[in-house]
Amino acid sequence: MYQKGDYVVYGSDGPCLVSDVTMLDIPGCDSKREYYILHPMISKRSVIYSPVDNQKVKMRFVMNRDEAEKILSGIGDIPTMKVENEKFREEQYRAVIRNTDFRDWICMMKMLVSRRRIRASQGRKFTSLDEKYLREVGDIASCELSIAFGVDRGVVEEKLRELIG
């Protein structure tokens, strides 16, 4: 169980601060259930009320510094994601983000950056769909890394650009 003050990754909302674990007396919430009150770090104006026993949305602790350093040092060994069927590209992107696996996020980022390079070399624009998901996965990954390293997101965004290309 997560505690007040913990940083967690909550589904596609990315890194969140657990501001409380409590029973809620709000319409639409089961007053006999315990809830996490989560504050997403990317969309700071949002609040998420998630039942402690929620099995529908993946949730995990934000990486610590050692885990983050290990992933970044081995980023070259992380494979590039493959999209098997173009018709399901967006569905696959959403599934990767919802899964909360940082390595999968890197796989996706590598594929999207490579795709952007290839399209540019062909004189074609990067698709708005790919741009949207590169920005989304990049925001979530850099936010988690900034928490792990205790630095500003801009610092880790630059580091990710260096490592991924």
Brief digest:
This protein is of the alpha+beta class. The protein is 45% helix and 17% strand.
Could you describe the 3D structure shown?
The protein is of the alpha+beta class. 45% of the residues lie in helices and 17% in strands. The chain is built from five helices and five strands. It has a five-stranded antiparallel beta sheet. The termini are far apart.
Fold blueprint:
Blueprint lengths: L6 E4 L3 E10 L10 E7 L7 E4 L7 E3 L3 H9 L15 H11 L2 H20 L6 H22 L3 H12 L1
Antiparallel strand pairs: 1-2, 1-5, 2-3, 3-4
Helix pairs in contact: 2-4, 3-4, 4-5
Question: Helical region count?
Answer: 5
Number of strand elements? 5
Strand order of the largest sheet: 4-3-2-1-5
Mean pLDDT: 94
Query: What fraction of the residues are assigned to beta strands by DSSP?
Result: 15-25%
Task: Give the distance, in angstroms, between the N- and C-terminal Cα atoms.
Answer: 37 Å
